[in-house]
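Hi X.,

You mentioned you wanted examples for the new student's onboarding notes, showing what a folding record looks like when two proteins sit in one file. Here is a clean example. The first protein comes first, with its sequence line followed by its structure tokens.
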Amino acid sequence: MRWLVGWSSTAAGAAEIGSAGATGYDGETLHPVGSQLLWGDPDPLWAVGDWRPDEVRLVTADAQTRIAVLGTCGATDEELRLGLFTARGGALRHLTAWPGSYTAVVQVGRRITVCGDLAGARPVFHTPWAGGTAYATAALPLADLIEANLDFGHLAALLAAPDVPAALHDSTPYDGVRRIPPGHALILRAGAREVAGYDPVASLAVAAPPADPDRALDAVRDALVDAVRARLAAPRHVPGADIDPGPVPGMGPAERRAARGMPVPGIGADLSGGPASGTLALLAAGLPGMPGTVLGHGTGAGERLLAVTFNDLAVGGREAELERAGVLAANPRFHHVVVAGGEETLPYATLDGPLTDEPGPSLVTAVRHRARLASGSADHLTGYGARQVLDAHPARLADLLMDRQRRHLVRPVAALAKADGSVLVPARVYAAARRLARMPYGSGLESLAERLLQKRFEEPGGAVGASLAALTWAGPGPAARWLTGEALAEVSIRLQGATHRSGLGPGQRPGDFRARAALARTAADVRVLEQAAEIRFQRLHAPFLDNQVVRACRALPEALRVKPGARAAILRTVLQGAGITDLPPGWGAPSHVPAAAAARAGLRVAVDSLMALFDTPLLAEAGLVEARVVRKALRAAAQGEPLPLDGLADLVSLELWLRRLLARRGTCWTGTPARARAVPAGITPRRGALASGG
């Protein structure tokens, strides 16, 4: 893991805190473990972890005016300097408009500004500390700093309503540690904190302005090309070149690298046969320059781009996608590697792994991704987030009604009717969209709170059922049906409190609001996946989650999004605009084998270990579930009963995360006694109240 951490102290506290850190319990100097100091007193900032030299950039105008940019940023030093001068006046948006994925921190006197991203893949956290405010791009270091206990209300909301921002609000799994929302920045002035938005959202007051589809598609193409170019422009890295133990009889450099579990030098990409990863791989291979592996290292493929395809031998059905990936990889600028995975790479196959900053469903599939990424490059492009930024959330049908564009409902509704085979589908979908368009935000939250209290979770099946269930302001999560009544009541109370806190609502159309929430949840899970499946010296890149790509995709017209097959059509147009037209037949066709097949197969194989995991679960000790109920659901799902597998993944991943958190030793800080870490007392059973609020 890599993160930033620092604090802003009050004037009185600044006199007591030195440039090297604060004072611990026994008078020791307090600073993060494994850190490098970017700037010192009175408001220090550290970079913690294995940052590469080119990932840490610091531009200084004077002793009290400077900017730190950490991550992959396509801005030049001169652009950073101009951005710093502009930020002195309080402007923020331009700090988030450079290509790449990064975190920018600006210090102007005693004012510190930390910018989060639009998707939520690079979050910012904060907590009161020592009379001021400590902040970080990871929650666990702050939890260690204040010895935070678990926020059981947040954990309950994470299971009962993970896609509802009002239920989670700004809380984290750690009590007292807060998160700023995507699209916002944390502004600190001598310890006082403020959270400010820097990106406008669509207003409910007026109709959405008409957008030119051609210009919008050109903007998406330019943003994606710039995002890929920012990665290609970064220095090439040879992992572990300085720690190679030297020749081993019978082993070449590539074999020694593989034995150490290190990635191939240079840049590569996923090539699953789907449109998202294929688009990024083709753009990376087609841009001018030499995009791939470093000559003389690894595969010996010169400057060809390393394309990695995962072939699931345990669950078939993706033969067409594999064939399309092979056709694409015939490009002479690709070096194609196919990674075969058997039962050992199924979901739930391995229940141990590293501790991540937060829980996420990716914990149960980390071994699957790690098997693929182990054959990848030091810088590896992935297509995560493409579905969320390009596809139309079903609730966007209500947006079309609000903008009086009923004619654009014809094609998506006709596709649903064809899939369901019922002539009643158009009337049902139109009625649900019309109801949502007329429903206030507060009423949607109250309706969900009522459903949780009454334990009404049954939804109609199929594509039509999923679309109808999504045509609401807020819906229950797939794991909600297995929570205790007390946990559901806690989440219901949080939702009812949100109706008073939010006032008139989010100020957005329901479809746009739901799409942003879905993107935030996906970005958070990608962050968990990056930590859980981490390969030493490797960097995962998700260009679809970059700020400029997200902005360009949000400008796409609703009418373009809701067409069946819109994502593949948009990406095909992007490739054509970049001069890439030779695509295999069927490119972009949806897979007919859902990911649920692999999840169900993994449940069947790992059912015994899952039964042991939930013999005495920490979730039951916390009052969130009953162990007997979860064991029954796991056994039934393994036998093929139609249960929501996503909900079981949420339960298992949260239980795994709790066990790893409580099993850890040590802390993120030096100068503190052993007790100064998160959840020092473990899980104490809660009766009558699950959390302190949040």
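Then the second protein repeats the pattern, sequence line and then tokens:
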Amino acid sequence: MRQKQAFIPTMREIPADAEAISHQLLVKGGYIRQLTAGVYSFLPLGRRVLRSIEAIVREEIDRTGAQEVLLPALQPADLWQQSGRYEVYGPELVRLQDRSGREFALGPTHEEVITQLVAGEISTYRKLPVTLYQVQTKFRDERRPRFGLLRCREFVMKDAYSFDTDWEGLDMTYHAMYDAYHRIFERCGLQFRAVEADAGSIGGEGGTHEFMAIAESGEDDVVTCSCCTYAANMEKAISLETVKLSSGDGDVSAIVREKALLEQFHTPGLRTIEELTNGLGISSAELIKTLLYLADGKPVAVLVRGDHSINETKVLNALGAITLELADSETVKRVTGAGTGFAGPVGLTVPLLVDYEVSIMPTAIAGANMTDYHSRNVVPGRDFALAQVGDFRNVQEGDTCPSCTEGKLTIIRGIEIGHVFKLGTKYSEKLGAQFINSAGESLPMIMGCYGIGVSRLLSAIIEQNHDDAGMIWPASIAPYTVHLIPVAHQDAAQMEAAERLYAELTAAGIQVLLDDREERLGVKLKDSDLIGIPLRVVIGKGIAEGMVEWKKRSSSEPAERIAISEVLASVNAHIAGS
């Protein structure tokens, strides 16, 4: 491609609404443009990267034996109602009606559609297993789209669905996909971890793993061990301390309880944990934090130690609820009789979810359910019931690893780029995907689901591969491999050499962007650094001696002089090495 005719509208200023570095650079570099909040157009450079990623995804998924289909984005609402997910997805599901008043949804995922399709076409074990996948545009009505392609309302996704006759078959398919995901992300040049995860609204009966690109800008907390390979999303992570308590090693009856009587004391204006620890001169571990939630609209109280934070996913799963949100001030006042910040477990009539660590506290300070008052000498099991005790907290830095029992847990940030699920029979039973086995019995198919955020990968890769000047694309997915830049457009010798090299590289199958614009060299080099093509060849006055300047975008070393006759071999060596 000749840059003079290429549609690459670079910008000099950072867009005001772009928070993530990948968002800033993709817009500045002319890769994407926003149409409306969370909806983006892919310009030629962005589309070329997207196609390269899609090609890698297709190659590796095809290697597993999966077959590509293309399913409708427009889905009948009754399919979602049949699966039970129409309400679960809530306002994130984009809903609409046709002219006849029939309800539809724009698919954020395709479990219902693919299950109905397979149910209508396969009825015998002889046609199983089968895995089908697609690369498709998805829709999710995000409450707050942000970070460019990382949190969109319209996005490109690869989703695959497997159908097996038994759990052993699903295990084989799951591990084949798990391995394929490793190959895909390695080929995309990403640093990533596969971590244990919560199934969320996709659900299922088996294991699930998320694939996380490691990045400080990530929205997810990834918990890893300092000694072993244990890794989990914060929503799923547990500590050895919690494992011991849940197994009975921390028997509540063995805890030495405080004998002092419960008493209330005046704490004017002390609402937060920080205010209490500073005002009372105590540690946060001596406090019980009581938060009121609405679970499917009904109030519940969750208790964790003052130095811990509540894991809302664990709470939601323990309750088997569809929705969970913090109670508003009116609800808090109605349930506790006090203003926000003074809730406590003693005397509450709503269900109490008590974290293991709270259940073994000998005594504690907690809200008194009276504005400006707290209670001291609160004893779990004496002053409030321990009817529902469980793991309701987030792990912390320094907790002990539950896997190797020796390492300490550390927390890093990550960007979710893929997710694999063992669905079991969640969808096949509800949507009638049955098969007849060799004994003549009718059984539900055992399903798996496997997603990759294809468009999201652009941002994840840039979050890991950039510098102050711009993007640094890995060779495997770059929009072009070589950026060819003649210094002076009016210099006939330079332009002739550039044209010869352009033709030679192109004939060898190398993707080349030739900057034939009548611009100053500084402008050309600045644009080149911004758009991040892996290799740059500058043709200047040295061409009189048959020499050009060669530079790798990923290297901080200055450009080196090489013979123009060596460029093709050097490019091929770089491609092979990367």
